[in-house]
Input
Amino acid sequence: MIRIVTRTRLVTLQQEAKQARARSRDVQASADAAYARHVRTAWNLTAAAEAAEGRAEEAFARTQELRQALDRANADLYAARATAAEQAARIDALTEDLSVMCGAVALLNHGQLHSVHRDQQAAERHAASFGVGLHGWGPTSDLPASEVVWRISPLSKWAVTDGGDAG
Output
């Protein structure tokens, strides 16, 4: 079959082809712009993801540092608690010793400290081992401590200086 194309038809076909090519260029330009936006978006998202990964790595490293600092602080706290417990036990022992020493007396010989005893009866028994009468202790005389052979004085009142008995 042969078809005869008129000049008008040929001009119309050429115009349609020209319009199709223009439309094709417009569509291609739109596609290129869309692709460029897609590439820019992908690049921005990739950069944002890499930055987030960097921040996550920094946060992880900081977390590790903080975990180590916390472990050291916990070890220090444990040691401090152990020290506090030891000191509390020592304070309790010293408090008990102090309670015992509150009633303690000093046995003086010519005003000089001879021995310390937990109570007056213990001091008298000790002095008796040197020939002093067990029940011959009377009130303290007004004589200076250095002129009295044996004297019992409360340890809390006895001044630890040369001269001996303060009370």
About this structure: Confidence is low (pLDDT under 50) at residues 159-167. Helices lie at 7-102, 120-128. The radius of gyration is 54 Å.
